[in-house]
Amino acid sequence: MNMKNNKKYAEEAVSTVLSYILSLSIALVLLMILMVTYQNITAGPSSTVMYEGLKIVGSDLSMRVDGMDRIIDSLRPYKMIGRLETEVEIPYSVGGKIYYVNFTQTELSMEPEDISLVFRVPMNLTTNLTSKTLSSAQQRVTIFYNNSSGRIEFE
After folding, report:
1. Domain ranges of the chain
2. Best CA proximity match to 129, nearest among 58, 71, 66, 86
């Protein structure tokens, strides 16, 4: 009889340990699912805010370049173009991230640091543009027409 009682207690001890291990495992799996879900929920709004901020800054910059192109195009037949420039202040960061502005002849693109997100604005310019990449840390951008090269450039 003693042997039967020992076996019964041993089985109860094993089943108690197994129940704790299974409960802990289930709790950890549920916690991991909750953490992944929370991360996805919080990542969505921040990238939306970042995209909207880049859209505002990018639209302003592209309008400045397009406006300068239109002025140059309207004055070109009269050969009255001297130095034409505009200074733009851009925010140091958007959504807490420094970003880069890439100007090319056909588009303006903006990319934040450490995030795979790009905002693009197509541009259809009649004046040649010198391609340039600027950091938002610069904060002030001078866009000017260089009469000797016939190009829109950036400082």
Report:
1. 2-154
2. 66
Beta strand 107-112 with 99-103: parallel, antiparallel or unpaired?
antiparallel
pLDDT in tens, 5-17: 555 565 666 677 7
> Is 58 in contact with 108 (CB distance < 8 Å)?
yes
Q: Is the pTM of this model over 0.85?
A: no
Give the Cα separation of 111 and 54 in Å (integer). 8
Average pLDDT over residues 36-62: 80
Q: Rounded to whole angstroms, how far apart are CA atoms 56 and 132?
A: 20
In single-letter form, the type of residue at position 60 comes to D
64-93 pLDDT, tens digit each: 999 999 999 998 888 777 778 889 999 998
Between the alpha carbon of residue 150 and those of residues 32, 71, 73, 116, 146, the distances in Å are 59, 13, 11, 35, 6
Q: What residue type is assigned to position 74 of the chain?
A: S
Reading phi first (left if > 0) and then psi (alpha if -120 to 50, else beta), residue 92 is in: alpha
**What one-character-per-residue DSSP string does 48-87 give?**
HHHHHHHHHHHHHHHHHHHHHHHHHHHHGGGT----EEEE
